[in-house]
Amino acid sequence: MNDIKSVRGMRDVLPDETPQWQWLEARFRQMAHRYGYQEMRLPLLEPVSLFERAVGVSTDIVSKEMYNFRDKSGENITLRPEGTSGCLRAVLENNMCYHKTQRLWYQGPMFRYERPQKGRLRQFTQFGAEAFGMPGADIDAELIFMVRDLFTGLGLENHVRLEINSLGNSSERQLHRQALVNWFSHHQQLLDEDSKMRLAINPLRILDSKNPRLQTLIEQAPRLTDFLQQDSQQHFATLCELLDKAEIAYRINPRLVRGLGYYSHTVFEWITDDLGAQGTVCGGGRYDGLAELFSGKPLPCCGFAIGIERLLLLLAATNRTVTDHRHVPDIVVTSELSDGGISALLLAEQLRRRFTTLRVLTDSSGARLKRQHQNALNSQCRIIITLNHDGHIRLWDLQSQQQSETDNAGLMTMIAARQQHWQKSTPNSDRP
Ligand code: HAM
């Protein structure tokens, strides 16, 4: 038995699964294109300090979950735990928002050292979209429209729900934070150890506590909503109005704070009840203060990211899987000649050059002809070609069950006729 295993929480995507991935990736691409978002390809490695500053040292992601290491020059590097920070870094570094707005998207693996379970991996894949330089609630709404559009296109509209909240600006949050510290300090004797620690580091996180003994205290704690000034209230009200007009159902969840420290104003999550504990399929929001933290210049920003593995689990749980015939060969070339497969290889290559849309494979297993035929039948191909000892070429059409003996020129004519017939009978299929 092979005793070398993949790293815990990091999984292989096998050929059975890749068609589903490719199909979903095409959907993302199409959605981004329709909304005018352009693709960014970002490095997997970033400086640790990027996430310390952007996501925040007191968050679980930065304090516990990053894959940090020193490279050969002693630089402190990490495998990116998310895409937003790197995307903004790239936008600022390449001066992409000088007198310009940007709508961008990215896709790729992210890394977090979390406890693996269903829907939670240490290497997972996000599709993300970020909009830069646009301050209004219309862009928050546009991003939510995009996700709605995707979910509706996937037939998942009844399996996900949207929750939104406003986190206001930093001075409103500061006032709220102080009020929380006062409140929980006043009731310190009721707090558990975990919450006492959070009180010192990040009192907002106490609101996330699942401890049933704390729920009343949390319910009664000061709410951020009560600290929002007119501008923040207006931004949120506009978003709600736009969602209403676009007939997107949502719930305002005043306890939705998200686990990353960079958010301001709008935050949102799309949640499913079909996946158990890891039900957040998409998370996002506005992070207007972050660019200033990096570059000293303000830049309004807003975005979201979807977890692709979770979305695939949801599609499987709701029986929305694709059948993809592209991996099925059109022609398999078998041979009983004892020339080490050379004739079969050359014939297959001749067929590929002549019929450029056909998928042609050789059986290079070295098995006897009967076994080669069985392999070809198992592959569900349309035609089996056999090179016989007597110099003849046999064509076995598995659809009509016709078998014919021919020579090379005759074979080419027969395949051309069949290809034409396939194109006519299934013009829109994956198969040519
Ligand atoms: P996030 O909520 O940390 O937000 O992650 C977004 C999505 O990635 C989650 O909703 C979930 O579907 C998926 N995800 C997160 N962690 C895991 C994991 N360990 N295993 C599997 N899937 C996971 C962000 O990352 C922000 N950058 C989103 C954003 C973009 N905000 C503004 N722009």
TrEMBL record:
InterPro entries: aa-tRNA-synth_II, aa-tRNA-synth_II/BPL/LPL, His-tRNA-ligase, HisRS-like_core, HisRS/HisZ, WD40_rpt. It is found in: Cytoplasm. Transmembrane segments: none annotated. Its EC number is 6.1.1.21. Residues 1-329 form the Aminoacyl-transfer RNA synthetases class-II family profile domain. Keywords: Aminoacyl-tRNA synthetase, ATP-binding, Cytoplasm, Ligase, Nucleotide-binding, Protein biosynthesis, WD repeat. Pfam families: tRNA-synt_His. The keyword tRNA-binding does not apply. GO terms for molecular function: histidine-tRNA ligase activity. It catalyses: tRNA(His) + L-histidine + ATP = L-histidyl-tRNA(His) + AMP + diphosphate + H(+). Belongs to the class-II aminoacyl-tRNA synthetase family. Homodimer. This is Histidine--tRNA ligase. It comes from Tatumella punctata.
